[in-house]
Amino acid sequence: MIKADSNLLSVVDLFAGAGGLSTGFLQSGKYCIKVAYENNPTMQSTYKRNHPNVDVRGDVCTADYSEIDQLYGPIDVVIGGPPCQGFSNANRQKNTAVSHNNTLVKEYVRAIKALNPKAFVMENVGMLRSDIHRFYLSRFDIDLLNGSAIETKISRIPLLDPKYSFDGAIDIVRRKGGIKPYLGLTQDYPVLNIIYKASKNAKKLEGALLKYKRNLLKTASIRIREEDSPIIRADAKAYSAILDYYGGRLRSVQLKEKIEAAVLYRRMIMHAAEIFENHLVVDRYSSENGLFAEIRSFAVLDYIKAMLGEGDDGYSINSSVLCAANYGAPQKRMRFVMIGIKKSIAGKITLPLGRIDESRYLTVRDAIGDLEDVDPVYDISDDIGIHLKKPKTISELGKKLRNSKLLKNHIITRTTDTAMQRFRALKQGENFHDLDNKLKTNTYTDVSRTQKTVYCRLDYDQPSPTVVNVRKSMWIHPVRDRAISIREAARLQTFPDSFVFMGKKDEQYQQVGNAVPPILAQAIAKTLANQLKKVSK
Questions:
Q1: Are 232 and 304 in a shared domain?
Q2: Of 105, 109, 31, which is closest to residue 65 (Cα–Cα)?
Q3: Closest by CA position to 328, among listed 4, 110, 27
């Protein structure tokens, strides 16, 4: 067994990402991270670079927690942010009926059950409390529902639009054997669906048809056949239309109507297959105004509380959505935080109290103002580190974050002429919607639905919006006509300059956007440590 520091609480970090949560816990001076699980190789590299003394491992789904206990002894605290997308209309636009990320919440619960720590901390996006974050009932959950007071409701998975319903459709989807003859069709679904979705924009459609021409023509040679089945007839119609397009007999704008049924039938088969693959318990299939699978569902939060909170040996649990700005971050980032402590230790759980009100929020200037005159680099190969000179002015937050004389990750993307025109047109606090209409052309499929965070020029004297992948969102420096650098985005997240991100440029931006602000994590860590202080080690 590897001996632990008796003055520090031992921690396992699940879904660790780049290490924002771990960083905040270490900054509190109360914890020692023993093991971290992160399946993404690039994020693993970043974590190892910044936490060299931590045993970093991969997929939590294959974790053997008995080995962790043997190596490191009892673990005091488990932390982590399991992805939880829930199910919603947005999820179905991604062509899945079930969010497989939700199973990772169950992996988090498995870790708590196996390691039996004194406490756990789970964080996620603020929407985790929403009703869309639910589990569909599987046959593995039936015993849980029978033994607890989890409330269920009937949720409907849409399988087919009423326009394309046909007699016998229910018989196909309700049996595993019914969908089996059609599973081969789903192999070309991704390409066919790209063409279908691209039909909203003529330029994108032409580009997609050119890109996938060889693939589509090859598939057409085996798909066009006669069979007395609505699904196969739709398939033949779709690929006949594709051949007509490439043969000059059909215009591209006519394709959507010709291929729609084939796309939606494939989607139906895929969703039906997901139901079987995930062992979901279908109460009934409904053919009223379309085709649906009706399945009981229950809230993710109710599941966690039932699994971890019940019984005398369970956990006292408290949760809330916290705003990072209330804890000293220069951004209004909302994170759902749940803390559980063994009932034998605490009957009531306290969440960290945010001591900074809106009138005193830290700003973008506080975070990155001292870097305004530091020229960024464009290529990873040039990121050898910039030697910093003493700034003319610097905020208190800037002093805390500027803990390295060598500035890494101060990298930006090169700006196209079109993007630069937009950059120059936008004032601080403005975004894509504030542009003149002539500057919105040749861009997003539906400009009216573009998020307000796109082409956002940050306001020096306000907190930033929630930091995402700012490269994809084209965030603009408050006073320079350039993109926000990876380091500047990391500053907005309160990562110190000594924290170095690894990987390709977009991977680094993504890691920053996914992270928990260390300053918020530190507040959580301190509050938890105070509640565990009375426990003898």
A1: no
A2: 109
A3: 27
**Domain-located, residue 340:** yes
Does residue 2 fall inside a structural domain?
no
Residues recognised as catalytic: 84
Strands 55-57 and 31-37 turn out to be parallel
Q: 76, 341 in Cβ contact below 8 A? A: no
Cα–Cα distances (Å) from 145 to 136, 152, 206, 300, 382, in that order, read 12, 9, 51, 13, 57
Q: Alpha-carbon distance 35 to 57, whole Å?
A: 7
The Cα-based distances of 285 to 157, 169, 269, 398, 427 in angstroms read 10, 10, 14, 59, 54
In a structure prediction context, what are the per-residue pLDDT tens digits for the chain, which is 537 residues long? Answer: 555 566 899 999 999 999 999 999 999 999 999 999 999 999 999 999 999 999 999 999 999 999 999 999 999 999 998 876 544 333 444 467 666 556 788 899 999 999 999 999 999 865 555 666 788 899 988 887 777 778 899 989 999 999 999 999 999 999 999 999 999 999 999 999 999 999 888 888 999 999 999 999 999 888 777 777 999 999 999 999 999 999 999 999 999 999 999 999 999 999 999 999 989 999 999 998 999 999 999 888 888 888 999 888 899 999 999 999 999 999 998 888 999 999 999 888 999 999 999 999 999 999 999 999 999 999 999 999 999 999 989 999 999 999 999 999 999 999 889 889 999 999 999 988 888 888 877 665 445 555 667 889 999 999 999 888 888 888 999 999 999 999 999 999 999 999 999 999 999 999 999 999 999 999 999 999 999 985 544
Q: What is the DSSP string of 121-184?
A: EEEEEGGGGSTT-EEEPBTTTHHHHHTS----EEEEEEEE-GGG--TTHHHHHTSHHHHGGGGG
* 3-state class (DSSP) for residue 500: coil
- Give residue for tokens 């005193």: 360
Number of domains in the chain: 3
Give Dmax (Cα) for the chain. Answer: 80
Work out the burial of residue 181: count CB atoms within 10 Å of its CB; fewer than 13 is exposed, 13-18 middle, 19 or more buried: middle
In angstroms, rounded to a whole number, what is the distance separating the alpha carbons of residues 135 and 102? 7
> 501 lies in which domain range?
364-515
Residue type, 102: N
Give dist(CA 309, CA 114) in Å, integer. Answer: 15
Q: Please check whether residues 375 and 455 belong to one and the same domain.
A: yes
Task: Output the domain CATH number for residue 35.
Answer: 3.40.50.150
Alpha carbon distances (Å) from 501 to 68, 157, 251? 27, 40, 48
